[in-house]
Amino acid sequence: MKHVLLVQSDPAEAMAVRNALQGSSEAQFQVEWLRTLAEGLRRLADPSTGEVDAIVADVFLADSDGIGTFDGLFGAAPQIPILLLIDSTRQGVAKLAVHCGAQDYLLKSRFDDYLLPKAVSNMIERAAVADALYMEKERAQITLNSIGDAVISTDQGGAVSFLNQVAENLTGWTLEAAYGRPVDEVFRIIDGNTREPAQNPMALAMRENRTVGLTADCVLIRRDCSESPIEDSAAPIHDRQGNVTGAVMVFHDVSKARARSLKLSHLAQHDALTDLPNRSLFDDRLGRALALAQRHRSKLAILYVDIDRFKHVNDTSGHAVGDRLLQSIAQRLLGCIRNSDTVSRQGGDEFVILLGEVANAKDAALAAEKMLVALAGPHGIDDLQLRITASIGIATYPMDGIDGETLCKNADAAMYRAKNCGRNNFQFFKAEMNLHALERQDLETDLRHALERCEFELHYQPQVSLRTGAITGCEALLRWRHPTRRLVRPGRFIDIAEQSGLIVPMGRWVLHDACSQAQAWQGAGLPPVLMSVNVSAVELLAMNFVAGVRSALDHSGLAARHLAIEITETALMRDDESTRAVLQEISDIGVHIALDDFGTGYSSLSHLKRFPIDILKIDQTFVRHITTHEDDASIVGAMVRMGRSLHVLVVAEGVETHAQRMFLKRLQCPEAQGYFFGKPLLAGAFADRLARQPSADVRQPRASDARALAQR
Ligand code: C2E
Ligand code: MG
Ligand code: MG
Description:
Layout: E1 2-7, H1 11-22, E2 29-34, H2 37-45, E3 54-58, H3 67-76, E4 82-86, H4 91-100, E5 104-107, H5 115-146, E6 150-155, E7 160-163, H6 165-171, H7 175-178, H8 183-186, E8 188-191, H9 201-208, E9 218-221, E10 227-238, E11 244-253, H10 255-269, H11 279-296, E12 299-307, H12 310-317, H13 319-334, E13 342-345, E14 350-358, H14 361-376, E15 379-381, E16 384-386, E17 390-397, H15 404-420, E18 426-428, H16 432-450, E19 456-465, E20 471-482, E21 486-488, H17 490-500, H18 503-523, E22 530-534, H19 537-541, H20 545-556, E23 563-568, H21 569-572, H22 577-589, E24 592-598, H23 605-610, E25 615-618, H24 620-624, H25 630-645, E26 649-652, H26 658-666, E27 671-673, H27 683-692, H28 695-698, H29 706-711
Parallel strand pairs: 1-2, 1-3, 3-4, 4-5, 17-18, 20-22, 22-23, 23-24, 24-25, 25-26, 26-27
Antiparallel strand pairs: 6-7, 6-11, 8-9, 9-10, 10-11, 12-14, 12-17, 13-14, 15-16, 19-20, 19-27, 20-21
Helix pairs in contact: 2-3, 12-13, 15-16, 16-17, 18-20, 20-22
Bound molecules: ligand C2E and magnesium ion (2 copies).
């Protein structure tokens, strides 16, 4: 049953309409008759009076005449279809009303029992279809606005017909502003790599009547000219017959995803601590730089920078400080290079620098010099002022290699050379360095087996009193009887042993063997002498060092006062509390402590007072020129006087000539050691030497060393 509102002032005409509708076989109508526009409007304004499916109205009512009748009714209920009844003379009004939204009109003279119900029922059906369509469109819009992707559609001519909200946000265009404009104006895209305008995929989709996939590296230029990387795809729109009537494009912002992937690739290529390029990125850049250098016949240089004794910073100040120091170093190095160069961290305290354009070797040397100076200034970390130095090795293309691997290997070899040359300097690669590196590798392999194969032996070098010439002690010096190299001196392998940790078991063997030897000589009736054993810092700080000393003494039966351990001044310079504690324990047992190579490590007087030192061994570099260089003579003189006033026994090392001996004697240096008095000897030869010595001479008092005397 359809409810029809009839608005008609003329009762006869109203009756005719009602009869026509209610008597129809077309549909069932219920007719509600209202006489004036005012009644009609009241009725429509009150929803409680029931739904209305259609309005049939005479344009000429008692209270309204003409288009105003339609306007009133349409304004009150735009969703209800309206059929107007009209005199044939007033068709203009009817046409105007239809233009403004009326569904239809009938001439009063024409309608009959068939035509009127037919017209009303058609009108109701059409309104229902339109309603459904409207709802559908609305639903589609809501759907398109709720998806996360941006959607733009165009008509066949490429004019924008729709933008969803995401598309509005992304392009910066509202649907209202974009509607009807050429899509290229609203959706402007470029190729992110070339920055050339990119082809709009919608045009292609329409032209080729197929879905067009992503445009690679597509960048959208928004209405305000800002940019966002997007991914897009477009498809043609078809009508029911399959004809292309437009195109739709779906796209989304990929800036976050791209930023994330950029970050990931940055992390994969950079060192997390310093943010410098890591080895893989460095290798990549080196490869490109080499290709360029080859093409342009230019040169490039690789600098290996290794921080001297960095481990010491970590050991004494902790890893957190070590890390901050590495960051500071990274910044200083970056300050020394051009933008086109690369500073990379290869792990640990090793940095590798690529200088992309060097005119000649001097440029690389200048850069290295600059870096040494930049690194040397104090690094303020918390309240610490840390000072460091570095050793730098340089290899240049094409002289020292034409491929990356060779260049890096050679720069590394040059860096080792810089370390061996006393650190805090730079060295250029030289071909013979590779031989050294190879030899070093071989030595390390062999060294691992040397101990179990009993290839080590100790030689003993006499120490004598300068006043009497008598032997007062000896220094045990390690020798390696290598199966193919004959006798290897410690200078060749101690470093390697320290770095590999092999020094600890080696040192333990030396200590045991030396103590046993000293005790054996005494057992054989030879006069007791002070046995000095060299100990490196690595050993000293290793676990159980003191226990090892005790065990060597217990095992051999040697009294502690006949043993001295020699540590180098540089080892002592580590000024570590644990070094001091270990030395104190050793000293408390009664073992003497000698400071070896004195003068080379810049230790201060406060150092000497802080540590329990009994003996100072003046380094041979000072003794060598004592008779020819005034400076050295006065330095040695000062050392002797200082030793005397600190009650420490002074031993001059490396005495080779009679003149040196006499000079030292005049300076009142108490004791000496050197080739002049005797080269290092095997135990048997040393025992013979000791035995030949007139017994009265053996234990001459050391006037200058009250403390040592007291303990012996
Ligand atoms: P060092 O403790 O200063 O030992 C003195 C070095 O000078 C020895 O070299 C000795 O042979 C050499 N020498 C002695 N008199 C003269 C001389 O008149 N002229 C010259 N030119 N040289 C002289 P060597 O045996 O090659 O030892 C070198 C260094 O190796 C030692 O220096 C010491 O620091 C280290 N070393 C030796 N044995 C051991 C050991 O068992 N353990 C550890 N950790 N280091 C050792
Ligand atoms: Mg020594
Ligand atoms: Mg020495």
